[in-house]
Amino acid sequence: MDSDNHVPISPHFTRHILVNLTFCLTIFGICGNIISIIIFYSPKFRRQSSHLYLSTLAISDICFLINNLFEDTFRNYDTLYNLHMDFLENSSTFVCIIVQYIRNISRLTSSWILVSFTIERLVVIYYPLHRKSICRRKTARYILLIIFIISIILNVNVPFHYGLLYPAAICDVLPKYRSIYMHFVIVTMISVYLIPMFIIGIGNMLIMHKITLRSMHKQLERNSIDSHVHARLSIPSDGSINPVQHNQHDGYDQLSLVILPFQNNDKKALTKQVFCYYYSHLSLVQEADVLDPIERKETDFSHVFWHTKTQRQYNIQLKGGTRRRITVTLLLVSCSFLVLNTPYCILWLLNYINRFQNEDLKLVKQSTELLMLSNFCVNFFLYCLSGKLFRLQLKYLFNRLYSNDKQNNSIMNPNDNH
Questions:
Q1: Cβ pair 259, 303 in contact under 8 A
Q2: Across-strand partners of 262?
Q3: Where are the domains of the chain?
Q4: What Å distances lie between residue 283 and 76, 250, 260, CA to CA?
Q5: What is the pLDDT along the chain (418 residues), one digit of tens a residue?
Q6: Mutual orientation of helices 93-126 and 178-189 as an angle, nearest 10°?
């Protein structure tokens, strides 16, 4: 095809695409955040401070999305299609100020809730012994209250700078305050995006560094235990095991004893690995009573467990898995915050340098606004991706809704069953 026949995409067509995508994304984000709030306030999630952060983040995101839907999306629909969907048109000055106040507060609050959540996870990973004193719902409530109060104070200019512009009665910045308002916009960019992105980026790097070091340390520890076990255990050809002598200076509290025999056709290749699970790491078992080889063959067990404090160890393992899943959720949500907001910040700065006069840059900035908006919408998908318990609770919620709907239909149509 010749280049002469190429028809460029008009900015008008691009705006149509952006407006419709924005509407669909906003509706999806509102529904997803509502479901997230319902799940996070269920009994299985209610006790943890991390889920209080996430539920409050979902509430803040809903406030921003609903505000954006009425203020921007419907206004753009009204401009493009003349559908008279601008609900804020001809509204009162009070409604105009409240809408702008909620928009600015929710945007700032969402960013700093994620910062607080990142800092909490960072402290938990680097100082696990202080986890119980830090990761408390009462502490999280105080932090969220402080964030909300600071957000109100930082946006105290909104009642003075916003109002209705006549004769169209459009809610916007008053002309006499436009020059001053630009300074507040710069402060908003720094406080909502640049500083939180810097803190979250540094926090994520430190978390990933600590997780990598811990993983390497555990792998080296397993290899050391493995070699120590083979050196300490004598395995005769008949498959019997000589008990390992007890070391009196071992002060650890034994939680459970696990014997894992790996059998194959070659009796000489029969290996035994004996481990003792302690509070925080694996250690070599130093005293063991084992089954008689004949009795072990008759039982045909692939592994045998002796429990002294099994339930306690099981709870520790569950809590460790929960903490890992919460950390994975944090990394996904915070990384999406960085990825989706960075293009918008860059384009905003470029437009600011060009005094918002370049039409091409303004059009590209509108595209990055869609990415910025998606940051308020994708968290529900990320929770489903990273949280097994979240998925189970979501499945239970839909099954319950389906069963209730089916029961209501059977009550309304009793003759269908006959």
A1: yes
A2: 271
A3: 9-215+331-400
A4: 65, 10, 15
A5: 444 454 455 666 777 788 888 899 999 999 999 999 999 988 878 778 888 999 999 999 999 999 988 888 888 777 777 766 666 666 788 888 898 999 999 999 999 999 999 999 998 888 888 777 778 888 999 999 999 999 999 999 888 888 888 877 778 888 888 888 888 889 999 999 999 999 999 999 999 998 888 888 877 777 776 666 566 554 454 545 444 444 444 444 443 444 444 444 443 443 434 444 443 344 434 333 344 444 444 444 444 343 444 444 444 444 555 677 888 888 999 999 999 999 999 999 998 888 888 888 888 888 898 899 999 999 999 999 887 888 888 888 888 887 876 666 666 565 554 4
A6: 20
Which CATH architecture best describes the domain 9-215+331-400? Up-down Bundle (1.20)
Tokens for 9? Answer: 């995409």
Distance CA 337, CA 117 (A): 13
Provide the CB-side half-sphere exposure for 282 (13 A, CA).
17
